[in-house]
Amino acid sequence: MSDDVRNIVLGVVAAAISAGLGWLTRTYLWKRKLRRKQAFFGLPDNAESLLVVNRGAGGPELTVMRYDVFALLELAALIKDCNAHAQIVPHDAARQGFGERTEFCLGGPASNRRMTAHLASLLPGVRVNVDAEPGPDRGALQVGSERYRVEVGKEEYALLARLTVDQSHGTRPVFLFCGQTAITNQAATRYLARNHERLSRKHGTGSFVLLLKVVNSQAYGPDVVELVADVTRAAQAPLPTPTATPRNTHRAS
Length: 253
Hints:
With 253 residues, the chain is α/β, with parallel strands linked by helices. Helices cover 40% and strands 23% of the residues. It has a seven-stranded mixed β-sheet, with helices on both faces. A four-stranded mixed β-sheet has the order 4-5-6-11. Strand 1 (48-53), helix 2 and strand 2 (85-90) form a beta-alpha-beta unit. Helix 2 packs parallel to helix 4. The model has no long low-confidence stretch (mean pLDDT 83).
């Protein structure tokens, strides 16, 4: 074998080894990223999850409003990326406890009984004004001693939470998307879809509650979302007895 042929063969072998090592590295990194995502969402391969939504007011059939459909699409993509499966369940038909399957609960307590139960059991420091009568506090979200009023289309708030309970109930998390309006529910799911890697690095597989503000939704839809604060401690502690002072009263008056 001549030197030229030997050099060509060695070059081909080196290229093949380099390509193989590169492929193995990329595969390892991809699998590690997938496992982290699966751990954060509590969705190992072929796991089952619940998407809990409001039932439409038009009758007994399950009908989902437009913005909630968009939110479900955001969540369905995340679930599919984890190689898991989802079942859509009306809020008044979900009968399971905590931790058996990962749950994504969408909508405020005014129209979602399941959300009402989760807030009472898991987030005693949160209150949502569900009064039907018009008024400045209608739809207001209270977390601890702070109250956040809604100005529809201009300044709206939502809670995004990942919650776990003790091991006796299971290990799967419950994700809550509790917004003051339908579009804020979608905004919260979109925020999770875009930021789950950062949230996973910061919180791991622990619980957190984030207060989000949706800015000028009448112009920007669910896309412009600001993180107001991590309110985990306030949301998980019982509410104080004194009535809270509205945080943005001057905007709602």
